[in-house]
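User: quick one
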Amino acid sequence: MLKNRIIPCLDVKNGRVVKGINFVDLKDAGDPVEQAKIYSDGGADEICFLDITASNENRDTIYDVVEKTSKKCFVPLTVGGGVRSVEDINKLLNCGADKVSINTAAVENPKVIIDSSKKFGSQCIVVAIDAKKNGDKWEVFTHGGRNNSGIDALEYAEQMEKNGAGELLVTSMDRDGTQVGYDIDLMSKISSKVNIPVIASGGVGNLDHLMDGIKLGKASAVLAASIFHYGKHSIKEAKDYLDSKGIPVRI
Amino acid sequence: MNVTIVDYKSGNISSVINSFKEVAKDKVTIEVTSDLNKIKSSDKVVLPGQGSFKSCIDALNKIKGLTDTLSEFAITNQKPLLGICVGLQMFADIGYEETETKGLGWISGKVSKIDNQGGKFKLPHIGWNEINIVKDSKIFRDIENNSHMYFVHSYEFVPNDKKVISATTDYSTKVVCSVEKENIFGTQFHPEKSDKFGLKIIDNFISL
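Assistant: Done. Structure below.
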């Protein structure tokens, strides 16, 4: 039976982790490679790096991080943030990323998704959707949540599946950072609309939220950051909890 | 000993390279090449594959003499070869992804889309799933039945002779996920991304 995936996400800036595990025994708390290794050894089903490097001159730092991590971690590695073109995707894959998540570029230039999924296969193309509720619908935001494209998130999700996305990483901007749980309504609506797997993101504060994302939100995978980083819960605790609630996970 | 990972410019093979180098350490040389002479002289060959069946076959055919060299290696000389994902699928006679495409024909059968029961199951089949080992395979030495492996695919290899199947996995149907026919091995899952157990399978292949 296919298992639901638990994916810890690390924010990386200028090649350093800015929001990550806060353990005292870490040799170098800012080293993304060391942190990713802790997660994969702890049973993470996948590792996600979100590159939040703002300046262009430091953009290349992520390639070095991905290259080093992929030599130490033998679980899938997804990398996103600032991916603009087919060439950017190519570079990340060559460095050892298994999947690349694309946000703004997928909205601005749908050809990036069409071309890259043809060239590298849908299996490595993840479209990241940042959605915010407006009345009775959700709108897609770009540029790290700064710009409202006005596009309906449900229609957009369907379109991205057609364009060749292999997975959708759906983040509720209303919930992100709030720790009150995923936007279940958004997740389940998108998941029912498309036939590709949905990764739920944004808002996890406790282990029940992970369960809700899978059970009620119909997500195939759940992504979380803070509950794992600050030692609140280990990946193993999360999996044992989900297992005790009858949710299929890899133990 | 040396193991060659065939680089035929299709898809992303860096994870395959990293995992083989990790397992091989200094005891085995890992070559990454499409050079025909190097392939001929290697002890073992790994055939990775990402993207569609058609794009992989097209990429193989683009390199003059490559399919003949691989057939000579695996069929005539019966040296060990491991196909991963689409690398395994290409063993078939025919594939139906994008359009009908002729495969290598090493293990008789076809590659068709997983029956997802009219949308009841998501495709691609992405994530960790258990393997049901149905035949003693050399690459499963010290691998427990029901171990988890990482999958990502929408198409499956359906061999005519069921005796070649070494493992299946339960999704919408029983999906063939590993084959062994004499010196030819294949996994539909990605051992290079399947953590400790995946690396063990790679080690088993290298140690054959």
